[in-house]
Each structure stands twice: as C-alpha cells, then as structure tokens.
Automatic annotation (TrEMBL):
Coiled coil: none annotated. InterPro entries: Translin, Translin_C, Translin_fam, Translin_N, Translin_sf. DNA-binding protein that specifically recognizes consensus sequences at the breakpoint junctions in chromosomal translocations, mostly involving immunoglobulin (Ig)/T-cell receptor gene segments. Seems to recognize single-stranded DNA ends generated by staggered breaks occurring at recombination hot spots. Exhibits both single-stranded and double-stranded endoribonuclease activity. May act as an activator of RNA-induced silencing complex (RISC) by facilitating endonucleolytic cleavage of the siRNA passenger strand. The keyword Nuclease applies. This is Translin. Ring-shaped heterooctamer of six TSN and two TSNAX subunits, DNA/RNA binding occurs inside the ring. Belongs to the translin family. Mg(2+) binds at residue 129. The lineage of its organism: Eukaryota, Metazoa, Chordata, Craniata, Vertebrata. It comes from the Eukaryota. It is found in: Cytoplasm; Nucleus. The gene is Tsn_0.
Length: 208
C-alpha cells in the first residue's frame, strides 16, 4: 500500500514533466527548448525526493519482488530524462547518467537500481518521440533538425541490432523502432525532394 502511494506520486510528477516537454512540439516551442529543459530538471528534483521515499518502503533484496509496481513509471522517467538530455545536447543519455538524474543506483549490487531492460525500454520510447519531433520540426520550418534526428536514430538502431533481446516486451518495443526509422527517413526524403535541406545547410539550425 505504501509503495503504491509513492508510485502514484511519481506517476503524477512524470505526467507534469511530460506535459511540459510536449510543448516542444508546438511551433513556438523550439525557441523555448532550453527553458523547458531547465524546468524539467527542476521536476526531477521532486522525482529524486520521491525515489528516496520509495527506497525506505522495502529492503533492497526484495527489489524484484516489488519491481512490477514501479517498472512502468521508471521506464517513463527514463524516457523523459533521455528526452531532456537529447534536447539539450542531441546525445544519448547513458544508464549511469539516468540513474543519477533519478537519484538511484546504476549497479544492482548497490541497492535500488535502474534495471537494464527498464533503461532500454525508456530509450525506445525516446525514438518514437523523436520521430514525432522530426515531423513537427518541418512544420515549424526547422529543416536541419530531421536530418540530425535521422543520424541519431540510425546509430541507435545499429546499437540495438547488436543486442540479443530475450525479453518479449522489449523485443516488441524494438520492432517499433523500425517504423520510427522508416518514418524519419520519409521526412528526410521529403525535405530533400523539396530542396529544403540545402536551405537548412545554408540558413543554419532553426532558420527559415
């Protein structure tokens, strides 16, 4: 019961961060990206406090006994942390960096930790979000962003190909990555056909 209460609070904070970051998909949202990321990082302060509370509700050797309770919200928080880091630096966040943002451990031996499959699930959700961002970038007149997203997603896809995914739900999520790659390629192709990519190279990022 106590674990459920903390998890509900975490879900609420995750919803607030998601609502905040969804603003980047709006036309004017591109100008506000640094401000939105800063605000999201403040919310992650709340997440760390809530995680501290969660850790006190059971002994660490029972992590996998209760894992199902927070698995979904943890994956969502990984995605949100990965999205913030991508928006800030256009790089992939490491599992260690996510664990630090969330105020938990990266290593299983050290207590409440970020399970590798939860990390990978969150990263795959990021891919879908970036596919959507690629489409909305073109609408907002930012023609170079889809090209950069395409490079990033292709590298991500190559990384996942090296993994031997045994987990069924993770495998299904990975299958979705192929559609994200395809969707982004279509956006890039459309931009190229219309000659907008030349405009992107000449005009610089975000200029029309």
């Amino acid at each position: 019961q106590e674990i459920r209460k903390v998890v509900q609070a975490l879900e609420q904070t995750a919803r607030e961060i998601l609502t905040l970051l969804q603003g980047v998909h709006q036309g004017s949202g591109f100008q506000d990206i640094p401000k939105k990321c800063q605000k999201a990082r403040e919310h992650f302060g709340t997440v760390r406090t809530q995680m501290e509370s969660l850790k006190t509700k059971f002994s660490t050797d029972q992590y996998y006994r209760f894992h199902e309770h927070w698995r979904f919200v943890l994956q969502r928080l990984v995605f949100l942390a990965a999205f913030v880091v991508y928006l800030e630096s256009e790089t992939l966040v490491t599992r260690e960096a996510v664990a630090e943002i969330l105020g938990i451990e990266a290593d299983r031996e050290r207590g409440f930790h970020l399970d590798i499959e939860d990390y990978l699930s969150g990263v795959l959700t990021l891919a879908s979000e970036l596919a959507r961002l690629a489409v909305n970038s073109v609408t907002a007149g930012d023609y170079s962003r889809p090209l950069r997203i395409s490079t990033f997603i292709n590298e991500l896809d190559s990384g996942f190909r090296l993994l031997n995914l045994k987990n069924d739900s993770l495998r299904k999520r990975y299958d979705g990555l192929k559609y994200d790659v395809k969707k982004i390629e279509e956006v890039v192709y459309d931009v190229s056909i219309r000659g907008l990519n030349k405009e992107a190279t000449v005009g610089g990022v975000g200029e029309k």
